[in-house]
Amino acid sequence: MGIRIKDVAKAANVSTATVSRAISGKPGVGVETTEKIKKIIAEMGYRPNMSARGLASQQTHNIGIVSPREGNTVLGNPFFTRIFEGISNVLDKNQYNMISSFTYQHQQYLVENHVVDGILLFAVREDDSLLVQLRESRIPTIIVGSYEEEDFPNVCPDDSGGIASAVQYLVSKGHKEIELVNGPKTAFKSRLCLEGYEQAMKAHSLDPHSIIEVPEYDSVASYNHFIQRINDASNLPTAIVCSSDYLAFGVMKAANEHGIRIPEDLSIIGFGDVPFSSFTNPTLTTMHTNLLKLGTTSAQMLISKINGSNLRKKKRLFQMDLVERQSVKELK
Amino acid sequence: MGIRIKDVAKAANVSTATVSRAISGKPGVGVETTEKIKKIIAEMGYRPNMSARGLASQQTHNIGIVSPREGNTVLGNPFFTRIFEGISNVLDKNQYNMISSFTYQHQQYLVENHVVDGILLFAVREDDSLLVQLRESRIPTIIVGSYEEEDFPNVCPDDSGGIASAVQYLVSKGHKEIELVNGPKTAFKSRLCLEGYEQAMKAHSLDPHSIIEVPEYDSVASYNHFIQRINDASNLPTAIVCSSDYLAFGVMKAANEHGIRIPEDLSIIGFGDVPFSSFTNPTLTTMHTNLLKLGTTSAQMLISKINGSNLRKKKRLFQMDLVERQSVKELK
DNA sequence: TTGTATGCGTTATCAT
DNA sequence: ATGATAACGCATACAA
């Protein structure tokens, strides 16, 4: 095929060992020699074969970015893609490739073959079979996003605290009837959000309102469920907390179509601060966290783990902060 | 380290060659033997080493998904991520990994090493240095998304035709003053959209209005530019065509803040049919194309090219269709 | 249908 | 500082 390290060595009148050392920057090779070799590499257009390198060094230099959820649930969601950005940055610095895996089929392939050095697992739910396979395997894994167990290191937003802050804010604006629009209970995130909601309500001596459980973190589903909510009962609350901006978008659309004005008739607060939140009408008040940092942190943790570190902190929680916009009205 | 093909062979009382054949499903292995081997593999938890396999077979089984744009420009954009879904599906079926590359640094690494068998190049612009590197390299490459040159196979939406259809639709609704909000001219897409706009206007004997060139395909930039447009001159057109839904979102927000009602005072039509288009207020009329199919097509083309096929069709154009929603009003 | 032996391109060990 | 050479784990051409 192409041109090998052997060819470079021959052209430079040195051994393959020297070339290898020069490339990897390992000590034990003269400055002059190094320069000569680099020059020849450029001239000949030599491109190291990563398979061979991987075989010899017993590393793949690949990190798996995997989510058992449907591709679009993750890929189409700025919440995750923003995290990916952070990950991408530290992976690059450490010479790792990012292998995306969003289908069941590929994930099986990943678990059944030596193709990655470690895995960053996203949007996992407790009934995901991949979770048990990963536990059995010896593949270093970090779970990114809401998680409750202690078996894997985990970095995630403080869902519970975030929702509590949202409720707290609503209360400070005079609201007492506060309802939660949540995702499916199978998601760790939903359970944590529910927890935060209930605790916060209790802390303010308020009765938890009915909770709407949308089967997916999706605007369309949320829209449908909220329309049903409007039709089923007329006693709407004065405010709604959503465990995701996407859920909020659906609620806003449903409300709008039924002549329910936001925030005049109904206050609403989102969760996640997706870019689009500033482009709804009215703009959406929501909870924000540093996703980029969350991404870099998780990647760094994984790399540490791959390198044998024992990760003193198994869990990293990212605080959520309020972003005040137009969707919440002060109750007189 | 782990357990190798040799160990499996020993346990099964066969040769490594037989095990190898059994795994890859190559002909020449008895049914019984195959079953025995598969069982032992499962029992022992043997995981083939992909580096070794790649080295021996001279393939990496990796496909690079690369874009010279900032990570979020691509990742945060449903337009691209929807395409990724399609790609992901056919890559899986063909046992390929998807390596994402959204930073300059990693792309250099990709070009300077044998790490992928082929590349799917996104959102490229003519001044991207990667383009010339790729031309010099022998890496099979397909360009996905708007492109004008003939040097690489290319699959993309029919930007020019799409914009023309949008203008045509506006005209059919009685509009004569139609303005284009476009992306930066450095993007192939913008140039094609401009082309479609000018042709369509001419075809209807209409004067091309002033064109707003937003320096990035971004809602915030679009918002800022349209506010300036409103302040600079008072003669707003009756309708606006945007070359991206995101651009449209910015325009809608700016209009809304200035008391310009959509569609009563100003009709607007987007481009791309991003999921969020159905959640704006009013919902956005826009141009749609089958992104999933676009993705599968490009992946299939790349695989064909990798396998030595000579791709009879160098260019694949995807038709764009109108999705009628609420942002365009009929002029009496 | 199955086994033997060699090569894939690098890294790493041990010399020098 | 540099060289010779043995792994690394698998696929495959050739034999049997």
Automatic annotation (TrEMBL), chains A, B:
Gene3D superfamilies: 3.40.50.2300, lambda repressor-like DNA-binding domains
PROSITE patterns: HTH_LACI_1 (PS00356), HTH_LACI_2 (PS50932)
Start and end residues of each HTH lacI-type domain: 3-57
InterPro entries (UniProt xref): HTH_LacI (IPR000843), LacI/GalR-like_sensor (IPR046335), Lambda_DNA-bd_dom_sf (IPR010982), Peripla_BP_I (IPR028082)
Keywords, sorted A to Z: DNA-binding, Transcription, Transcription regulation
CDD domains: HTH_LacI, PBP1_LacI_sugar_binding-like
A GO term for molecular function: DNA binding
SMART domains with a match to the protein in the record: HTH_LACI
Protein name in UniProt: LacI family DNA-binding transcriptional regulator
Species this protein is from: Shouchella miscanthi
